[in-house]
C-alpha cells in the first residue's frame, strides 16, 4: 500500500481544511506519485482553479522529480500561471519514502489574480504623481498649525532654535512667509517670541526675505 493510500483519510481532512479556510479561489491537490503520472491526482478541492479533476496528472515539476532530474524539495509561496494567464500563489509539500523518493505530494494553488489587479489599482490611487510627496499638516486649530510651521522652519535650516544666527532667522521668516504663516492673526508676535526677537525685527526680516525673492 502506498503512503498516500495508507494516510488517505488524514491527508484528505488536511486538504479539505485548507480549501475551506481560503475559499473557492484556493485549489488543493493530493497526488499519489506511485501511480502512473497521467493520473496521480487522487483528491482535489476547487479544481476549477486549474481545470483539473481526480484522475488527472501532475505538472512538469513533479515529472522532473520522478525522472530524477530534480530533487523533491518542498517549496512555499512561489508564483505560477495557468494556461489562461491566471496568477497562482503555490506551495508544494512532498512525502518521501525511506529511500528519499517522492511518493506523494500535497499542493496548494491560490488564485490571486483579482488580488493582484486590486493591488495594481490601489497603487495607482495611492502613489503620488511626483517622486516627492506633498505633505499637509492637519490640526484642530490654527495656533497649533503655526506652532508646527515654526518648528518646521527651524528644521529647514539644519540648526536648532538656540543656535540660529541672523541669516538663519531670515530663512525661518522666509519659510513661514512662503507657507502663508503671516496670514494667521498675530502671527508676527508669536514668531517674534519664538525666535527671541522683536516684532519690528520680524517685519524687517520679512521685508529682507521678500526683497531677496
Automatic annotation (TrEMBL):
Domain YheO-like stretches: 10-117
Residue ranges of domain Transcriptional regulator DauR-like HTH in the record: 146-207
PANTHER family tied to this protein: TRANSCRIPTIONAL REGULATOR DAUR
Protein name, UniProt field: Transcriptional regulator
Lineage: Bacteria, Bacillati, Bacillota, Clostridia, Lachnospirales
